[in-house]
Design a protein that fits this description.
Number of helices: 9
Largest sheet: 8 strands, mixed
Number of domains: 2
Helix content: 25-40%
CATH topology of the largest domain: Rossmann fold
Shape: elongated
Low-confidence stretches: 207-227
CATH superfamily of the largest domain: P-loop containing nucleotide triphosphate hydrolases
Radius of gyration: 24 Å
Distance between the termini: 64 Å
Length: 338
């Protein structure tokens, strides 16, 4: 079983939702697409058959016809809250003519102790686990998960990740749609960003892979230094590599450096001074003792008082970054202003 997007492009009237892209998710793979709400909703509508592509095709197991439809985990569940957990799973099993063991799915979602409790009496995270159990009962070949771990408690997130491992081992196709990059990186083996610039791979390495890559035969040998343009950040046990142009700005707070990218922040091991040196060739500017900004993302320079300035970025939240008086003079010189 595979899920394929072939030259897939979506437009609504004159607006481009996403440009043409190709993506194949094979059985046993966990692939996440990090995108805006609008892109995510359009992808779900396409997979549900509620809308069609402007160009290209979506194939399920090599077929254009959705004879084997995916199973969906939606952001907002449709559970019957008056039913108990066990009654809800029995209803789902009967509805889908499933042969999957309810007891096995209760154990997998760690709901054994909650089987007799009504869904409305469960916590939000427990309800999400019931939603997962219902989807597991359906036993589709392709799982499409919309923001699967949003607002979950830590215990339920751990259970969710164990479910993903189970599905991958069972050679299911797992396709995650999320607007949270940390969630995407934590959940998936492969992560892509889909926006107006198309489908872009987000590079990741686990700590083990990083160690093996740096010392593949258990020996440290002298090597010639190479120029490494990507900036590494750490999300749980994974190293995520960002291209400099992706970064909006960098902030130092209480001795920790954070990269700010599309409204999210990611910790970085480098100091602000080290990043200033690495990013200077890419158009970054040390605008304040605690900030470095990507000048390509600056929309406005605001003067508050004679000695107080700010930079307004063209990101979604219109971030405002302080600009020190001395750096204002330097910035004017860079821009050719007097």
């Amino acid at each position: 079983m595979t899920l394929e997007f072939i030259n897939a492009e979506k437009r609504i009237h004159d607006s481009l939702i996403f440009p043409s892209f190709n993506l194949t998710v094979n059985k046993g793979q966990v692939v996440a697409v990090y995108s805006s709400v609008n892109v995510r909703e359009q992808l779900i509508h396409l997979l549900l058959g509620k809308s069609s592509l402007s160009h290209g095709e979506i194939r399920l197991d090599g077929s254009f016809k959705q004879t084997n439809c995916p199973g969906f985990f939606f952001l907002h569940h449709s559970l019957y809250e008056r039913l108990s957990v066990l009654e809800m799973l029995r209803f789902t099993k009967k509805l889908h003519h499933s042969e999957v063991s309810i007891d096995d799915m209760l154990r997998l979602a760690q709901l054994d102790a909650k089987r007799a409790i009504r869904i409305k009496q469960l916590s939000f995270s427990e309800q999400k686990r019931v939603q997962f159990a219902c989807l597991l009962i359906q036993n589709p070949s392709i799982f499409v998960l919309e923001e699967p771990d949003q607002n979950m408690d830590l215990e339920s997130k751990r259970i969710y990740l164990s479910i993903l491992q189970h599905l991958s081992a069972d050679e299911k196709v797992i396709f995650i749609l999320t607007g949270n990059l940390e969630s995407a990186v934590t959940s998936a083996d492969t992560v892509f960003r889909l926006d107006a610039n198309g489908l872009q791979s987000i590079q990741m390495k686990t700590e083990d892979e990083r160690d093996e890559a740096s010392d593949p035969i258990g020996m440290v040998e002298s090597t010639q230094p190479v120029r490494f343009e990507k900036i590494p950040t750490k999300v749980n046990d994974k190293i995520v590599l960002f291209n400099p142009p992706e970064i909006d700005y960098i902030e130092s707070n209480e001795g920790q450096t954070f990269l700010h990218i599309k409204g999210e922040s990611f910790p970085c091991v480098f100091t602000l001074t080290e990043l200033e040196e690495r990013l200077l060739p890419f158009g970054f500017f040390r605008c304040h003792r605690s900030y470095i900004v990507n000048l390509q993302k600056v929309r406005e320079v605001v003067t508050w008082t004679r000695n107080s300035y700010s930079l307004v970025l063209e990101d979604l939240s219109k971030s405002t970054i302080p600009l020190s008086k001395s750096k204002m003079v330097e910035l004017k010189e860079m821009l050719g202003l007097k």
